[in-house]
Amino acid sequence: MKSVSIAAILLVTCAAAFAQAPAAPPAAKPDRLALVIGNAAYKDAPLINPLNDAADMEKALKASGFTVIRRDNATLREMHLAIREFGDRLGRQSTGLFYFSGHGLQVRGRNYLLPVDADVQREDEVAFAALDLGAVMEKLDSAKNPVNIVVLDACRNNPFGTRLAPTAKGLAQVDAPPGSFIAFATAPGSTASDGAGRNGLYTTHLVKQMDRTGAGIEDVFKAVRASVRTESKSVQVPWESTSLETAFYFRPAPIVAAAPAPVKTAAAVKGPRADPSKRTLPTAVGAPPNFAVGDAWTYRIVNKIDNTERTFTTRVTAIAGDRVEYSNGNVSDIVGNPTRVQRGERVENHTPSAQAYVFPLVPGSTFQIKSSQETAGRHYDLVTDLRIGEEEDVETPAGKFRAIRIDRVANWKQRNNKNDGVNTWTYWYSSTVKRFVAGEQSNVTAAGKVLMRERQELVSYAVK
């Protein structure tokens, strides 16, 4: 009886210990997560390069900060399980990337990625023997994360020979949902080369371009398209569909700290003060503006939702200390960051300002600014991320300018309300003009409703 009592006490004690032990914290969601699948060992039409493609893509993605889930020669069940794991590990703030190298085909307008165990005798069997690309897109959509990328090197020739002849070649066109970027190794309805070397032609050039520091995703795939088209003598032309609302870089440029402003000495301030009306234009492309009363700009605005156009002109009417006033009712700080914006009868007040510029504009610099906005009694909180890009040549109706690209992403949320979304603006600043010379802007709610999408171009300007 004594031994039984002791055993009972030990069981109770152990149970209490387990009950009181704190639960292990949930695993942190990775900032960047990728699922990479390479399928080569097909029974009817084996491929040479997909396993190498997957291995080299995994290496390139890890070098870009991604956590990678990789599957080689996956069966249909293994592909489904991998997608489930991928979706479970994606966080609300993660960047998701799905890459597939292998056989793919379209049936009745839908795209399917083939597992190595695909057993298809007729076209109507593809739907349950292969992975529907729509399942991947739905998993990404469920994550509600801001950026998703899908890369398909999967438009090889029909693997079933004469046994099955799909009604259309290659893969079907897919429109990217908001916040996503979809890349195909070749244009819809065309086939891609498996390549004669270690990798497929498309992946060969993609892993090279992903290694470019400071190149935006659009620039990466643009360079891939040019290289593949040239090497294939225009037989294979990669294609992309994008609805990204924020900038993305595989290899962001390193952040360069701005040099501290020089300290004025007594000798530096001797003599008469400069007359503001006789300021000279800055020579550096990214130098801050020296506004003068009378400076004027006219822009053409293209509404990309309904394709309508309008123009507006604004002129500096007064400068007092750090305050610059304009003819259209707007007010900015001394370098052009708006504090008051007049939109017809509506007025927006920004505190401290709707940050658009942080001088000096040092390429590769990034900033995060918190601010608030009041409009017609409604208050919004904003977290704005700025990234200063490189100098580029920009064509506008007013001429060609050397300008610095700036990517601005403002996540906004209305106070005491569920309304939230993201305002994305990519624009090019030139010190010659003292303002931006061109821009692309969108405002989209978290539910996916597009409130605004437009392009701005400088038509004319007159500055002192």
Automatic annotation (TrEMBL):
GO terms for biological process: proteolysis. GO terms for molecular function: cysteine-type endopeptidase activity. It comes from the Bacteria. InterPro entries: Caspase-like_dom_sf, Caspase-related_regulators, Pept_C14_caspase, Pept_C14_p20, Pept_C14A. Residues 1-19 form the signal peptide. Residues 30-159 form the Caspase family p20 domain. SUPFAM superfamilies: Caspase-like (SSF52129). Keywords: Signal. SMART domains: CASc (SM00115). Belongs to the peptidase C14A family. This is Caspase family p20 domain-containing protein. It comes from Usitatibacter rugosus.
